[in-house]
Amino acid sequence: MKRKDNMPTMKDVAQEAGVALGTVSKVFNGIPVGESYRVKVEAAARKLGYEVNQYARGLRAGTTSTVAVILPGVDHPFFSLLAQHICAALLQRNYRMLLYVTAAQPDAERECVGMVRQNKADGVIALTYNQLEAVEGLPFVSIDRCLGPGIPCVASDNHAGGRMAAEKLLELGCAHPAFLRVGSPNLSETDKRGDGFESLCRARQVPYEMLRLDDGAEELQFREFFRSHMKDGRLEIDGIFCSTDLLACRIRFLLEGLGLRVPEDVQIIGFDGVRQFGTGALYCSTILQPVRKIAETCVELLLTKDRSNIPALVCLPVRYAPGGTTREQRGCF
């Protein structure tokens, strides 16, 4: 490998190609030149192993063609799929993605924004569980959480999803449904999932239960909740809407450990649309989030030149899909 101080320069390329330095600069910056000159310059660059310094080129043009994406993790299928779709949407626009994984730690998120500012990335797309502050003059798009004026938020229609889940449970014969949620204590658009569930149950005048817990909730808390709703050895609750698919799977195993059958005794609907690796099958009946559309909308809003009319909140439609934890009629799967 060549040492840094022996790496070819644009001047070397010009000399090898037998053209002026300005011609080389035009070729590398996409400025039209005669076809014969372009061919000579590109051939000389390949021969010498010259590579354009994209970062320096971006600084001169006032852009880096790089967008920072902040996620709490990529170990969850939803987050990893979101990252994949954001990356694909950026590549279609000739942008690169710089991924920061923060484990939902506020200090780590703030440090990421500071690094982005120093590296002069062209913007930030963040899914954060904290009240993260944006940098003035740096385009910023938030997912699922409204962070303040001038920062558009992209989310699924969580309220409609909650109503959809409650309506489906009632349609499938549930008479006493419940909503279970584990998540950040900070307000977000995802809180509307429970609100939608509750509004539908009230409108239909059916008895329902609500249990909202913060992250870190232990299994014992759910066990106590279910035991408090046992009557004559039977669970009064016959349908459960969980705020996420991950929680839905957790609750399913807990109920089966208590001797209850899913979906025969208790039907469960989650939220996200997470699919199993390899088969693509859903882990549970669920409200599907339009992950690809969320990613594409975030990129579109972030790269919009005229930011004067950017909406404060974009809600994208969701839909229900059966996944084995509800009693669908045959042919629905």
Short description:
With 333 residues, the protein is an alpha/beta fold. The chain is built from 11 helices and 14 strands. It folds into 3 domains: 4-52, lambda repressor-like DNA-binding domains (434 Repressor (Amino-terminal Domain)); 66-156 and 292-316, Rossmann fold (3-Layer(aba) Sandwich), CATH 3.40.50.2300; 158-290, Rossmann fold (3-Layer(aba) Sandwich), CATH 3.40.50.
Structure description:
- This protein has helices at 10-17, 21-28, 35-48, 54-61, 77-91, 106-119, 158-171, 192-204, 219-227, 245-257, 291-302; strands at 66-71, 96-101, 124-126, 140-143, 153-156, 177-183, 209-214, 230-231, 234-235, 239-242, 267-272, 286-288, 313-316, 319-321.
- It has 3 domains: 4-52, Orthogonal Bundle (434 Repressor (Amino-terminal Domain)); 66-156 and 292-316, 3-Layer(aba) Sandwich (Rossmann fold), CATH 3.40.50; 158-290, Rossmann fold (3-Layer(aba) Sandwich).
- Helix 5 (77-91) packs across helix 11 (291-302).
- By secondary structure, it is an alpha/beta fold.
- The mean pLDDT is 88.
- The strands form 3 sheets. Strands 2-1-3-4-5-13 form a 6-stranded parallel beta sheet, with helices on both faces. Strands 7-6-10-11-12-14 form a 6-stranded mixed beta sheet, sandwiched between helices. A two-stranded antiparallel sheet has the order 8-9.
